[in-house]
Structures are given as C-alpha cells and as structure tokens.
Amino acid sequence: MAGRGVGHYHSHMLDVATHSAPRSPVDGRDGEAFEILPGDAAGGLVLLCDHASNHVPPEYGALGLPPSEFGRHIAYDIGAEALTRGLAARFGIPAALSRFSRLLIDPNRGLDDPTLIMKLSDGAVVPGNARIDAAERERRIARFYRPYDDAVLSLIEAGLATGRVPTILSVHSFTPIWRGTPRPWHAGVLWDADPRFARPLIDGLAADPAMVIGDNEPYLGALKGDTLYRHATRRGIAHALLEVRQDLIADPAGVAEWVERVAKVLVDLDLGTSPHGIEHFGSLTGPVA
Ligand SMILES: [Zn+2]
C-alpha cells in the first residue's frame, strides 16, 4: 500500500483511490548532510526535519563542547527525526532529514541571519564557533547547508512535477523548560501569513481537549529566510511548522502516540485528494523576495 496519498488512509475510498491515483515514487538517497526517505511524490504532502541530527564530524572536535551538550536541544530536536520517520512510513510520503547538528550551521536560517552559526546557545558558549572566518563559514555552507537545502528543493520539485502541489510539513521539537519557566504547550504550530494548512492543523490538534496547542507558540513562525520562507512562502506553497514538546516524543511509545495523533488530523485534512494550489500570501516579515 505504499504510495497512497494522505487522506486515503483508513478511508472507505481506499481501494478506489489507491488504484486510480497517479504514482510518482521518490527514491530514498542520502549524503553526508541529508537523507531523503522514499515515498510517493504525488501523495500531497512532503515532510522536512531540519534539526534531525546532533552529528558533528570528528574533525570539528565537538566544537569544543562537552559531550553532554549534544544530548540537549541546542544540538538537535529530540524526537523530531523519529516522528518524521513515523509519519513518512505511515503515509508512504517522502521526507528530507538533515544529518548534521544545528550547532555547526542551522539549515532553518537564512544565510544572512546572525544566528546561522551560533556562538552562544541557551547559555552554552560554542568555542568552535567563536572565531570562525569567512572561509570556514563558506565551507560549512557548501558541505552541510547547501546539500540539505538542495534535498528539500528536490522533494518539492518532485511533488510539483506530478502536477499535485505538495503541502509541506516541517517537524521540530522544543524544550519543555525555557530559561527556568515551564512551557504550557504540548505542541505548537508555527506559521507566517499562509493559513491554509496551519489553521486547520491547529484546530485539528486542539480538538482533543487534553491538548494545549500553541498558535505561533512557543515561537512566531514568521522568520525571513528560514526553510519554510525559502521553499514555501516565496513559492506560494501551503505549509506549516509543527513543534512538539520534546519530552512527549523522547521514547518510542511517545513517538507512536504522536504519529497517530498527527496522522489522524492529516487524514481529516484530506491532503491526498485535495491538495492546495499555488497561492501567495506574503509574509509578516515584509515584502517577499
Ligand atoms: Zn527545530
């Protein structure tokens, strides 16, 4: 049943849809900086996981940080990779995952963003980033940032080539306590100006009264140059960024629960049969360029 569109899952129309829907398989492939999970490019949804990995190649000497820092959210989004893999497998849709720590370079930032390479992250000074020169910055862009960005682009292009514009879901996680204050949300949906996917995703998740779902919490989704700005806002492609509290997806049972929770909402949105078209909503950050 691999390759059915999102929305066909558990549908009474499953057989009809499975036999009539066009198929356009994306092959799995990987490089040092990215992994593409195989799936159906015509499924109506592609998944991104910008902060999947805490990996730093040995020649970077752990950026001068103690090993304990690499178990924290500053190095990667705990649980986000497993949630992405679970959703991709669930629907047979493709996904792009990074294979390097955001401490090296953050793929979810524009190249002119001052936090592209963090010198300080949640109280931790990053010695290996303190004095890097322009050449080292360019090396990291070429070795990590660009190949991942190209992988994201290739997934979207594969979707567009099927004639069915893919909606983009970017999967992240956030730390339950920030600067000493517990965060109240179980999950949040971040978005900028395009409400097509974000609004119903928020409503769908919040339909469970046990869930506290943030609307542009714990962060504002409008960030010029971030992954969704570059690949979705600029191109008029419907999108949302899902942030799940990391302690809720820190083990396989939690991941399984959240795969089910998110999958149920995605099925209700019927992205497989009724995907969004190209439509430009602009950005709260200013003119889109
Ligand atoms: Zn993240």
Automatic annotation (TrEMBL):
SUPFAM superfamilies membership: Zn-dependent exopeptidases
Gene3D superfamilies, per the entry: Zn-dependent exopeptidases
Name by which UniProt lists this protein: N-formylglutamate amidohydrolase
Organism classification: Bacteria, Pseudomonadati, Pseudomonadota, Alphaproteobacteria, Hyphomicrobiales
